[in-house]
Model the fold of this input.
Amino acid sequence: MAEPKLPEIELSIDAGNWPDEALLLQKMHGAIGAAISVADLRYAEGAELSILLTDDAAVQKLNLQWRNIDKPTNVLSFPAEDITIGEKAGMLLGDIVMGQETLAREAKDEGISFGDHFSHLVVHGFLHLFGYDHQNDVEADVMEQIEREALAKLGIADPY
Done:
C-alpha cells in the first residue's frame, strides 16, 4: 500500500528553544503520515497545514483568547473547518501550535525523549483537525487508540 501524500506543511518557529528545524520537519512528516494511515484521514489534494512552534507565553495567550483558559498547554489545534470524523477535509486543514517549555517539561517528567513526545503531540494535534476529541471517555479512548497505533508505526512506546 502506497504511503499517503502528506499535506503541505507551513512551519514557523517564533520563540522557544526548539531543536534543529530539519529534524522537527522529519518528525512531523513521520507523525502526520502515521496518523493519516492509521485513522484513514482524507483531505483535498494539495491540502495545507500550518504549524507554529513557540513558547509557553504565546500559547498561554492563545489558550486564554480561544479557550478561556489562562495557562499554557503543550499543543493547541485550530481546525480550518468543522468536520466530523471520517469526513474529507478541504484545502486548508488548520493550525497546530506547540509550546516548547511545556513539551520539554512533560517529556522530562514522563522520562521520554523530547522527540518522541513531540511526535505524539503532532499526532494528537493533527487528529483534532479531523474532528477527533477527548471531551468524554469514549472520545478519549478512540483518540488514544489511534495515537497508540500511529506511534507504534514510528517505533514509539505507548504514551498512555
Remarks:
- The chain has a mean pLDDT of 94.
- Residues 6 and 118 are 18 Å apart (CA to CA).
- The longest strand covers residues 92-99.
- The two ends are 29 Å apart (CA to CA).
